[in-house]
Every structure is written in structure tokens, then in C-alpha cells.
TrEMBL record:
Tetrahydrofolate dehydrogenase/cyclohydrolase catalytic domain residues: 8-123
Organism expressing this protein natively: Chromatocurvus halotolerans
Keyword Cell membrane in annotation: no
Positions of the Tetrahydrofolate dehydrogenase/cyclohydrolase NAD(P)-binding domain: 143-290
GO cellular component terms, A-Z: cytosol
Gene behind this protein: folD
Any single Pfam family the record assigns to this protein: THF_DHG_CYH_C
Gene Ontology molecular function: methenyltetrahydrofolate cyclohydrolase activity; methylenetetrahydrofolate dehydrogenase (NADP+) activity
Catalysed reactions listed for this entry: (6R)-5,10-methenyltetrahydrofolate + H2O = (6R)-10-formyltetrahydrofolate + H(+); (6R)-5,10-methylene-5,6,7,8-tetrahydrofolate + NADP(+) = (6R)-5,10-methenyltetrahydrofolate + NADPH
Alphabetical keyword list: Amino-acid biosynthesis, Histidine biosynthesis, Hydrolase, Methionine biosynthesis, Multifunctional enzyme, NADP, One-carbon metabolism, Oxidoreductase, Purine biosynthesis
Protein name in UniProt: Bifunctional protein FolD
SUPFAM superfamilies (alphabetical): Aminoacid dehydrogenase-like, N-terminal domain, NAD(P)-binding Rossmann-fold domains
């Protein structure tokens, strides 16, 4: 009988990063009178987004930062969203702007993303920041979910990922592509798999590191994973259960994979909490750049 995998505690890792962020925030306040501020723009209603936004707001305040929320009706025009972003771009109290995705269909998300000032783009979705990440420019603003995965992987591998065969399942601009860039920078041998990949289970079995970011509940099965592999589960899927309730599951069949892998992130309590902690970190880094002061954050 194979021992069960080490469960990577994303909640604890996120708590540690948030503490480091809070210490840096109070240092910036004392040394420079600088208080990093984050604005979140939400269009329409979505129960999952609500939880995310509430957690973000609370944790931003707990870290000693300014948090503002802009909730717009689902019927708002694209021009109004762009106008709000333009106002926030010029607001000196705001150093980070997050436009929550997805947006209603009548709003062009790419246009929204490109309207956010690259300096305030704490999601790292602006083409300028994506390009800097691809170029390996030091200090690029990096998307929070992949960055959180990277921090957990570095900790697990004691800082050295070089030579590992890493498989990223999913090719989105938000997770898959930036994750692949980060792993490449760590000198992993990176494969990106997607819906057209032939024989994904066989490709997966060759990987030392698997990052699953496809949005398909429990897609990665136990017999897809090499013994001893490290598995990061980015998926957040709500599965209906009897009684009208729902259960949160990842893109990985946790009970199966934890019999084979050496380490795995759970859902909830894995990648999600680290995503928010990285958002706070990016906001502090953005604030320091805008104020022209140095920043002491990992
Ligand atoms: N511009 C933009 N940037 C984003 O980063 C972004 C976005 N839009 N739209 C929505 C998705 C989703 N997302 C989550 C982050 C953390 C948790 C999280 O903390 N989850 C906890 C709690 C989950 C729960 O219990 O509901 C956990 O996994 O343990 C969830 C979801 C960021 N997203």
C-alpha cells in the first residue's frame, strides 16, 4: 500500500505570506506614509465571485491596506466600465485595480484589461505585463494564481525546480500560459496540454510536476499520475450534491491521486487562498513602484 501524499497547506502558506505583506505595509506607512490601495471592479452578480470578493476585501483590510469595491449592475455599458477604470487609473489612493472576470457578454474583457494602467494591473493580465513575463523581465507583475502555485512549488522543492518535467494542463492567459512561463524561468522542462492533446493520461504520467487548470471536475485520475509526482490543483468546481447544496472539487480526483503523488494541493485550502495572498503582495509591489520606494517582499 502506497503512503498517501503530503497535503500542501495553501491556507497556512497564504497566512504566512499575508503576515509578511502586513509587516511590509506597516513599514511603508511608517517610513513613507504610503498606504497601498486596491480597487475591485465587479460587474453583475455571481455567488462564487461574491465569496472571492468578500475574502479579498477582508484580507486587504487586515493587512492594513485600503480596499475599495465597485459593484456595477450587469446592464452597465462597456463605456461606463472603461470610464470607471480610467478614473481609478488617475486616483492616487489606488495602486492596484482588479476587474473581476468573467464579465457579462456585452463587455469586451480584453478591452477592459487593456484600459487598466499596466502599473496598476495587479492581476498581470495587461499585454505589457504578459510580455514582460514572457521576456523574463525582472519585476514583471505576474498573475496571482500561477504565482501562488510557484511559491508553493519552490517551498516544496527547497527553491530548486531545475530539470523537473512540468506539465501544465490548460492554456488560458490567466493561468496556463503564465504558469508555463514561470516554470520555464525556473528551468523546468515544460509541456502545455489542452483539449486537443493526444493521450493526455500518457503525457501526464511523464510529469514530475502537474498543474491542473482546465475547469473540469476531477479530470486528472490516479492512474494518470507518476508515483511521487507533485500535483497542483487550480480547479474550483462546484458539484451539486443532494439537498440542493454544492461541494467544491478541483480538477484532480483527490482521493485517487493522493494515493500516488508525493504531494498535492487540496481544494479548498490549496491554490485559492494563495491567489488572494499574491494579490495583496502584487498590490504592495505596485504601490512601491508608483511611489518610487523600494519594497522588501518575496
Ligand atoms: N480578474 C480576476 N482575477 C482573479 O484572480 C479571479 C477572477 N478575476 N475571477 C474569479 C477567479 C476565481 N478566483 C479565486 C481566488 C481565490 C479563491 C479562494 O480563496 N478559494 C478558497 C475558498 C473557496 C470557498 O470556500 O468558496 C479555497 O479554495 O480554499 C477562489 C477563487 C480568482 N479569480
Amino acid at each position: 500500500m502506497q503512503a498517501t501524499a503530503h497535503i500542501i497547506d495553501g491556507k497556512a502558506a497564504a497566512r504566512r505570506l499575508r503576515e509578511t505583506v502586513a509587516i511590509e505595509v506597516s513599514r511603508l506607512q511608517q517610513a513613507h506614509g504610503l498606504r497601498p490601495g486596491l480597487a475591485v471592479v465587479l460587474v453583475g452578480q455571481d455567488p462564487a465571485s461574491d465569496i472571492y470578493v468578500r475574502n479579498k476585501g477582508r484580507q486587504t483590510n487586515e493587512a492594513g491596506m485600503l480596499s475599495r469595491e465597485y459593484r456595477l449592475d450587469a446592464s452597465v455599458s462597456e463605456a461606463e466600465v472603461l470610464e470607471l477604470i480610467d478614473t481609478l487609473n488617475r486616483d492616487p489612493e489606488i495602486h492596484g485595480i482588479l476587474a473581476q472576470l468573467p464579465m457579462p457578454a456585452h463587455i469586451d474583457e480584453q478591452r477592459v484589461i487593456e484600459t487598466i494602467s499596466p502599473q496598476k494591473d495587479v492581476d498581470g493580465f495587461h499585454p505589457l505585463n504578459a510580455g514582460e513575463l514572457a521576456n523574463g523581465t525582472p519585476g514583471a507583475l505576474v498573475p496571482c494564481t500561477p504565482l501562488g502555485c510557484l511559491f508553493m512549488l519552490r517551498e516544496h522543492f527547497h527553491g530548486d525546480l531545475s530539470g523537473q518535467n512540468a506539465l501544465v494542463i490548460g492554456r488560458s492567459n490567466i493561468v496556463g500560459k503564465p504558469m508555463a512561463q514561470l516554470l520555464l524561468q525556473e528551468s523546468c522542462t515544460v509541456t502545455i496540454a489542452h483539449s486537443r492533446t493526444r493521450d493526455l493520461p500518457a503525457v501526464c504520467r511523464r510529469a514530475d510536476i502537474v498543474v491542473a487548470a482546465v475547469g473540469r471536475p476531477e479530470m486528472v485520475r490516479g492512474d494518470w499520475v507518476a508515483p511521487g509526482a507533485v500535483v497542483m490543483d487550480v480547479g474550483i468546481n462546484r458539484l451539486p450534491v443532494e439537498g440542493g447544496k454544492s461541494r467544491l472539487v478541483g480538477d484532480v480526483a483527490f482521493d485517487e491521486v493522493c494515493q500516488v503523488a508525493s504531494a498535492i494541493t487540496p481544494v479548498p485550502g490549496g491554490v485559492g487562498p494563495m491567489t488572494i495572498a499574491c494579490l495583496l503582495r502584487n498590490t504592495v509591489i505596485a504601490a512601491c513602484r508608483q511611489a518610487g520606494v523600494s519594497c522588501e517582499l518575496p
